[in-house]
Amino acid sequence: MGKIIDISMDLNERTVVWKEDMPPKFEAVARIPEAPVNFTWLNFGSHAGTHVDAPFYLFNDGWTSDQIPLSRLIGRCQVLDLTDVKDIIKAEDLRRHNIRQPRVLLKTKNSYDPMVAYNPNHVAIDESAARHLVQQGVTTLGYDYQ
Question: Is the C-alpha dihedral spanning 111, 117, 123, 124 positive or negative?
């Protein structure tokens, strides 16, 4: 078995969110000793912190988050170092890499963002890159920004 690496972000009231989203809110509903338990109400959008964009996000007939098989999200993956890409990842940027796994993580300059506020200049992928990944058999893509 390979090395297990947790790449999830912290989720708290300072978590950077998409520009139109409200920040996460954590409300203490009950606390010991006044109450028999400690209970916190969580209120945040589905894009806060580390999250999954299920196919349903873009396609009405796609899986919702609860329908995605866990095998798609857990297992061996390949990290592609794209830290040299300035703005938009294109298919030609990906062709420099020998994609060998169905799960791919993209490491970009976004990994070095201090994440104190939404960054409108984050690196993203274009349609040619998305099509290339599908053609290479990639079924799960991880990304180092929202």
Answer: positive
